[in-house]
Write a structure and sequence with these properties.
The protein is mainly α. The chain is built from 17 helices and no strands. The relative contact order is 0.14.
Length: about 425
């Protein structure tokens, strides 16, 4: 190829990549807004409420609706997955991007909608998988005819997935770090810049729907700086909880997603059990935001926190075993927050420690997420962005996340 043609081709690819960054960021925001609107619609329809959070809706619903709502939603989602998987398996988004394979756009989009349906109706699964898939599908559709290199396309699609996560939770840095530290595991300037721009754009585009509201509201209670030392003490607990969570989810998840009609009664049964449990513990339905909210506003009792610590991961594993698909970020966070609440409440009650329960809950949640996602920087920043507590607590969350991750690596190395 003559030098002039090569130069023109390089300039064209650079221009197309720049346009791709903008397009992916905007479309990821659309995907985040669409999944958020659909999720809220399903929640309101399931629990028959109009204002407030899912916890408000579950708390105001009657016992029959609490029990049958997740069951009906689970049966409908199971029917959808059965019909979808009969045509062939839905490939993993992460594996597809890393292998530079074409995205199965329609199956992934339908799968994303079914994830929103099952989570919105009360399934104990994360909501973050759906916007990631839908954002990647939108981004791939917009750029598929462009002359991008495989590396550039991988960056754009991974950034779209991270931006989708950032959009639904209004966490631009967390969304970018998800791309950099989990999907691509690269600190190349091209990766970092693309991830930051797309995630920021997505959060801005989704703002009319999300209103840039953070899922958690930090209380005004003060926290002592000596809590930094407790972050190190929390690390062993976070490692234990995180490893147990990982093993439980790995044992529950089928090696190959089920395509049997048994998906319908299986997911419905998981929904029914979740609904029955919600009669006594309305925090259980949904992705885990309700548990995080009550942990942060200090409305959890010691006994309730202990029960939720056991039930939340068990119900999540039950949905996975039944064949449902969903994220695990918020269920892991909720489990970690429940564990931190148990320890803080117990020390306060029996030892008069005077610990700040919200800070203890989120510190442990950051440590657990560092184990389950194997990304301590993402864990610390993501938890801080969710609640926006005082800035210096970001250091506390990061210490807990990095300490837990380092301890986990030592334990894993000895196990081998």
């Amino acid at each position: 190829m003559p030098p002039t043609d090569a130069k023109n081709t390089g300039e064209r690819r650079l221009l197309e990549f720049g346009c791709g960054v903008l397009a992916v960021g905007l479309l990821a925001g659309v995907a985040g807004a669409a999944t958020t609107l659909l999720l809220h619609y399903v929640e309101h329809l399931t629990y028959h409420y109009h204002l407030g959070t899912l916890l408000t809706g579950v708390g105001a619903a009657g016992h029959i609706r609490r029990a049958t709502g997740p069951m009906i939603g689970g049966a409908l989602a199971g029917l959808g997955w059965w019909l979808l998987r009969r045509r062939g398996p839905v490939p993993s988004l992460t594996a597809t991007i890393s292998a530079h394979r074409p995205l199965a756009r329609i199956p992934m989009a339908v799968d994303a909608v079914l994830q929103v349906l099952v989570v919105g109706s009360g399934a104990s699964l994360g909501r973050e998988g759906a916007p990631r898939q839908l954002a990647a599908v939108f981004g791939d559709t917009a750029t598929r005819r462009w002359t991008l290199t495989e590396w550039d396309r991988e960056i754009l699609l991974a950034s779209a997935a991270g931006a989708g996560l950032g959009a639904v939770y209004s966490v631009p840095i967390g969304g970018a770090l998800f791309t950099v530290t989990i999907l691509l595991r690269s600190w190349h300037p091209r990766v970092v810049g693309t991830a930051l721009v797309t995630s920021s754009l997505a959060v801005a585009v989704a703002a009319p729907v999300t209103h840039l509201e953070h899922p958690l509201v930090w209380p005004s209670a003060g926290v002592s700086y000596r809590f930094v030392l407790l972050a190190l003490a929390v690390a062993p607990l976070a490692v234990g909880i995180g490893m147990a969570f990982n093993r439980l989810m790995a044992a529950a998840r089928p090696r190959t997603p089920s395509a049997s009609w048994l998906l319908i009664p299986g997911i419905a049964a998981a929904g029914l059990l979740t609904g029955i449990c919600s009669i006594w513990y309305p925090e259980l339905p949904g992705n885990g935001r309700s548990i995080l909210a009550v942990a942060v506003d200090s409305s959890l009792t010691l006994s309730a926190a202990a029960v939720i610590l056991l039930l939340k991961p068990a119900l999540t594993a039950l949905f996975l075993r039944a064949g449902a698909v969903g994220g695990l970020i918020t269920p892991a966070l909720a489990t970690g927050a429940a564990a931190g609440s148990v320890v803080a409440l117990a020390l306060n009650e029996f030892a008069g420690a005077g610990l700040n329960v919200p800070a203890a809950a989120l510190t442990c949640a950051a440590g657990v997420l560092a184990i389950t996602q194997r990304a301590p920087l993402f864990a610390g920043v993501f938890v801080w962005e969710l609640a926006r507590p005082p800035e210096w607590l970001l250091i506390v969350f990061a210490i807990a996340a990095f300490a837990a991750h380092a301890l986990w690596k030592r334990v894993a190395a000895k196990a081998v």
